[in-house]
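Consider this record:
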Amino acid sequence: MSLPPRLDAALQRLASALDQLEAASERRAKADAARGDLEEELNVMQDDRSRLAVELDAALARNRSLTLANSEVQKRLEQVGEVISGLLPEADGGEA
């Protein structure tokens, strides 16, 4: 038994619409998955940024500490150099 032409055409349009709906649904699912991947990547990047900011702060603090230590050592070396310079004429004068 064959279907009336109008019913057959309506069923074909319905099948076509269902195919389009399925394709749109698949595209949407892929887009949602891609968005989820992007959000996860953004979260990872934000975590990395936070970690790097902490590491940078620690490195800057260490640099300040080393700079202060270097200045202190430089002052002490200058003082020792002055003492040695003051003692050298006495040593040269004592030997002569």
